[in-house]
């Protein structure tokens, strides 16, 4: 039998034993403002003494404590109360006190503690509870599942695999919940291959079999990683095992088909579901409707809505939002506004997703007054605009030549229940700079920092791009250095922005020097980097050298044939040879 182990995954350091109950101060356990583990090692696993244990059924749990004589002691009451109240740090302290007095901890409350610490991303303390349970009590499959879930939520899949192996080594057979947790975590991290290996191991087990949920998780992952055809193979395997897919499974497949542009195939599947014992739901129709409208197939979309009505499904908020969004994308804004009115008349309450495409489209068409009017309507109907709505309006105001009004609204966002975040500050900086208000844009940066909002990589890239656009290359380079000093490693996007800036002002030597620095610092250039350099060299007057470089890079599989063809159109070789012949004649 194949044993699932960390051989499937990148190796992590061995477990560090932490078996002895620690002595805690009650004061420091309950009230603390410091991280008890300020430098956690994400590869620290969990361990305990490897004493043999008899497997406990997941259906039968032992009582809270085995010693009845001490059940009503004050300490026991404190432990129970703190655990039920969700005061998990206190609970762990009392648990340590109890086991030091010789009590046997119960699996139910310990499992609750493991789940509680995991939910608060304090996985080390969840591990400590399991160590106590293994040392002094009797864990069960549900307790191990809780710890595996905690590691998976913390993106520590290697440690989850170690717990998986450990529970099997201690005589506890994983159930289908265990496998689904592990498979779901692997799929969520785009590791479908490992998830399928785990499925193979599951099929070899005697005590459990895959369920509809197992296959649905795998089908959704296969659509993302391998495409719809891989997903259909899993569906066939599922049916061959006698498992009947539910609508969640079929909706995942319909969604995958629509994403790959196979809307007619998705429609055929939807209409065949009745014969398969499944009734399409409103989610199914909404997915297919979005697929039709994304391709501009309005006639098929209208027929689908008619069919939806005939099947007894009334359009919901999502249906109307899909229609409004599609109408806006195709420039039919007035029809979208009319549909919004119908939606309200039907008793449905539009949300930010319904309003957002309208506001965005109106701003793009320069109908700013109407966009602001829709936001006022949102507020009057107790629908608070989100930061995306406000950012769209603010950018439009700047573009329309009203930066002062934009800043005035921006500074009142917190009062309106929508405090600006780093993304909205980034949008504001770019919008102000783009409309020619460089000083206003730069003044927003210290304001952002003073409010405790740290600039992110996008902030730096936006400012660097602004400086480069205006030819302020020294300032751009200084900001690139500052970005690195602030703990943000410049990405290939950051370097490409500055390379383009140097090329635009014909400072090719500086562009090449920056390219060399980029490689030296371990940032790998992409095809765009090379194309920018080639174009910079060509536009600076060295077109023949630019094309020679392009051909050399193409020979080394660094740039594609399509890129070479575009460069040949940009720098026709006939003109190059003509210039060369003239220079030789002279």
Could you characterize what this model shows?
66% of the residues lie in helices and 0% in strands. It contains 31 helices and no strands. Helix 7 packs antiparallel against helix 8 and helix 16 packs parallel to helix 18.
Overall geometry? globular
Largest β-sheet summary: none
Q: Roughly how many Å is the radius of gyration?
A: 31 Å
Cα separation of the termini: 82 Å
What is the count of β-strands? 0
Percent of residues in β-strands: under 5%
Structural class: mainly alpha
Proportion in helices: 55-70%
Please render the helix and strand layout as text.
Layout: H1 26-30, H2 74-84, H3 88-100, H4 107-119, H5 123-136, H6 141-153, H7 157-169, H8 176-188, H9 192-204, H10 212-225, H11 228-240, H12 247-259, H13 263-272, H14 282-294, H15 298-310, H16 317-329, H17 333-345, H18 352-364, H19 368-380, H20 387-399, H21 403-411, H22 422-434, H23 438-450, H24 457-469, H25 473-485, H26 492-504, H27 508-520, H28 527-539, H29 543-555, H30 561-570, H31 573-585
Helix pairs in contact: 2-3, 4-5, 4-6, 5-6, 6-7, 6-8, 7-8, 8-9, 8-10, 10-11, 10-12, 12-13, 12-14, 13-14, 14-15, 14-16, 16-17, 16-18, 17-18, 18-19, 18-20, 19-20, 20-21, 20-22, 22-23, 22-24, 24-25, 24-26, 25-26, 26-27, 26-28, 27-28, 28-29, 29-30
Question: What's the gist of this structure?
Answer:
The protein has 586 residues and is mainly alpha-helical. It is built from 31 helices and no strands.
Which properties best describe this structure?
disordered N terminus; 66% helix; 586 residues
């Amino acid at each position: 039998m194949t044993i699932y182990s960390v051989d499937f995954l990148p190796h992590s350091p061995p477990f560090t034993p932490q078996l002895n109950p620690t002595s805690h101060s009650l004061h420091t356990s309950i009230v603390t403002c410091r991280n008890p583990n300020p430098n956690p090692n994400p590869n620290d696993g969990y361990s305990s003494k490897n004493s043999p244990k008899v497997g406990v059924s997941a259906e039968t749990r032992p009582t809270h404590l085995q010693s009845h004589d001490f059940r009503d002691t004050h300490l026991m009451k404190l432990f129970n109360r703190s655990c039920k109240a969700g005061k998990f740090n206190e609970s762990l302290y009392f648990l340590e006190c109890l086991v030091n007095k010789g009590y046997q901890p119960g699996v139910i409350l310990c499992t609750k503690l493991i789940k509680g610490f995991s939910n608060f991303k304090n996985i080390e303390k969840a591990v400590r509870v399991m160590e106590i349970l293994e040392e002094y009590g009797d864990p069960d499959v549900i307790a191990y599942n809780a710890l595996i879930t905690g590691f998976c939520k913390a993106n520590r899949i290697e440690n989850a695999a170690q717990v998986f192996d450990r529970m099997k080594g201690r005589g506890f057979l994983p159930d289908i919940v265990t496998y689904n947790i592990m498979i779901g975590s692997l799929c969520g991290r785009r590791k479908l291959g490992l998830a399928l290996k785990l499925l193979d191991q599951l099929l070899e087990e005697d005590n459990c079999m895959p369920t509809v949920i197992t296959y649905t998780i795998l089908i959704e992952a296969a659509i993302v990683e391998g495409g719809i055809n891989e997903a259909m193979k899993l569906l066939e395997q599922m049916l061959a095992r006698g498992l009947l897919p539910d609508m969640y499974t079929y909706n995942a497949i319909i969604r995958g088909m629509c994403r790959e542009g196979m809307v007619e195939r998705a429609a055929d599947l939807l209409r065949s579901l009745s014969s398969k014992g499944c009734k399409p739901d409103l989610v199914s129709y909404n997915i297919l409707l979005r697929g039709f409208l994304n391709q501009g197939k309005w006639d098929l979309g209208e027929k689908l809505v008619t069919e939806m009505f005939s099947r007894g499904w009334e359009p919901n908020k999502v249906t109307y939002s899909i229609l409004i969004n599609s109408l806006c994308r195709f420039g039919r804004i007035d029809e979208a506004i009319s549909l919004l009115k119908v939606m309200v008349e039907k008793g449905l309450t539009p949300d930010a997703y319904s309003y957002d495409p309208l506001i965005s489209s109106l701003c793009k068409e320069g109908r700013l007054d109407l966009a602001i009017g829709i936001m006022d309507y949102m507020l009057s109907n107790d629908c608070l605009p989100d930061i995306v709505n406000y950012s769209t309006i603010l950018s439009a105001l700047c573009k329309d030549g009203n930066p002062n009004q934009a800043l005035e609204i921006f500074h009142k966002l917190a009062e309106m229940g929508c405090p600006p975040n780093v993304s909205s500050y980034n949008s504001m900086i770019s919008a102000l700079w783009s409309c020619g208000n460089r000083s206003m844009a730069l003044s927003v940066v210290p304001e952002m920092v003073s409010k405790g909002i740290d600039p992110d990589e996008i902030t730096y890239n936006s400012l660097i791009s602004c400086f480069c656009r205006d030819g302020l290359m020294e300032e751009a380079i200084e900001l690139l250095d500052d970005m690195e000093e602030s703990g943000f490693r410049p990405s290939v996007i950051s370097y490409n922005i500055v390379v383009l800036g140097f090329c635009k002002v014909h400072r090719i030597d500086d562009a090449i020097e920056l390219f060399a620095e980029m490689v030296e610092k371990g940032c790998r250039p992409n095809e765009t980097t090379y194309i920018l350099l080639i174009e910079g060299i060509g536009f600076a007057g060295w077109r023949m050298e630019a094309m020679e470089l392009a051909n050399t890079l193409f020979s080394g599989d660094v740039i594609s044939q399509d890129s070479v063809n575009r460069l040949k159109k940009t720098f026709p070789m006939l003109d190059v040879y003509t210039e060369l012949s003239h220079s030789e004649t002279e």
